[in-house]
Amino acid sequence: MLKIATWNVNSIRKRVNQLCSFVVDSQIDIILLQEIKCTEEQFPYEEIERLGYECAVYGQIARNGVCVLSKYPILEKLKVNIVAGYQEARYIECVIKHNNQKVRVGSIYVPNGQSPDSYAFEYKLKFFDNLHSRMSNLLKNEELIIIAGDYNVAPDEIDIFDSNLLNGQVCFHIKEREKLKAILNLGFKDAFRTSHPNLQQFSWWHYQGNSLRNNQGMRIDYMLLSPQAVDKLETCYIDDRLRKLESPSDHTPVVCVMEGISENKIC
Question: Out of 58, 72, 109, 151, which one is annotated catalytic?
């Protein structure tokens, strides 16, 4: 069994204790983090390595930042600027050795987009186009691949608390929803929706307006699996306990359980 999680931690230095408790209590093998909000020099390696995890970090001063933490050896680490010319720490990709097999994972933090009439929104759409190209190329290798993180878009009405209220707004605009669905049409599968076709559950709630108490959230964090990874999927679930802690991230982890990984042998 291999247990992989993704979590927009919204500042790892503020929530390193929450992170350490979560990975130990939930027996997480690999965790992909977004919005770590620190440089690589500021990253809390000591606390995490003490638990037996290797770290691959792509940091940035005060904002963005992604990383991969793994109990298994990280064979390759690749920091990628999805949009050329924009030095933003939003994507890191690793190859991990598990039981003499390899698993390729990517931690992704898609831009929010601010508002549909902004330049930031056009940048978000460009980001999705370039991510589509990268993920399309990855599929050609027929590897076991998991690209997970904060995609900052809810694909369907079941993934938001009020489609009439949010339709046309950022994170539920038809243009960005189409971009995400184009990635899914490549052959990647949404692990949570594959495991729970009709379940409404959210991964993000605004800090304001009693959003958590009223369950006014969105599902914008995903584990996207290649066909080879889907074959190994046992289940995927959203663990909302961390959102209910004191001083939480506004996101909560998504966890994917894989069984019987036995392909893609490393020579």
Answer: 109
